[in-house]
Amino acid sequence: MKSNNIIQRRAVALGDFDGMHRAHQTVITGAENTVIYCVNNKFSLLQKSLFQKRYKNTVFADFEQIKHMDGEDFINKILLDRFRAQTVLCGFNFRFGKNASWSANDMRNYLEKRDVWVRILEHLDFDGEPISSTRIRNCIKCGEIEQANEMLGYNFTFESPVISGDMRGRTIGFPTINQRLPQSLVVPKYGVYESRTFIFGKEYKSFTNLGIRPTFKLDSPLAETHIFDFSGDLYNENIRVELVRYLRGEKQFSSVEELEKQLIYDKSSII
After folding, report:
1. Which CATH superfamily is domain 8-126 in?
2. How confident is the model at residue 109 (pLDDT cuts 50, 70, 90)?
């Protein structure tokens, strides 16, 4: 009988895995029973709750516990004693141990003497440059969401409860759901995005205004999503929204009528 006990798993993938972008995905590809060990819990590109849903074999390190370990301690206590690793997977730039003093090659040299195979993955390029979490974050901040999605391997996503709003949208035929962005996520460039909204397992076309609504002046950023062909009460429901394409920046409108015309145009631009 196969056991789900983590101690019996044999392959361990190591990394920060912020966003689990396409380069990260090469580290975990091809080994279904790999434990994903996140050594530095950053969630600027994919919030923790979604990460856990997508990658159920993930173990999140207690960084306070491991940050003072030297490289040899980390290998012996975490990889060998805790996980009993027979295979270790990591990226070329993975570093560990106190003050990041050990490299992936140091780990390979140490473990291969103990009959543990170490696979080090080289960088993955997009448009001639390596994919990295930093590069993806910069794209998102600049509104280059399509490039960010290409490097992520999925659409930039957030999931949070629907909160009450001022209901102005429904008075002009564009009701919206209002959500705060999860605190850990990078904040995309303010503006209007083509989006996809997932409600009780069903996908809907939508567009999302993300920002402070200069026409009505909000104190803090808000995501307001108009969902096509949907009506219903979603207050307090945890709803997932994916940003697909940047349509335009935020605008301040001189009248509600001018805003309505712009929203009609925005909706017509989404196929």
Report:
1. HUPs (3.40.50.620)
2. very high
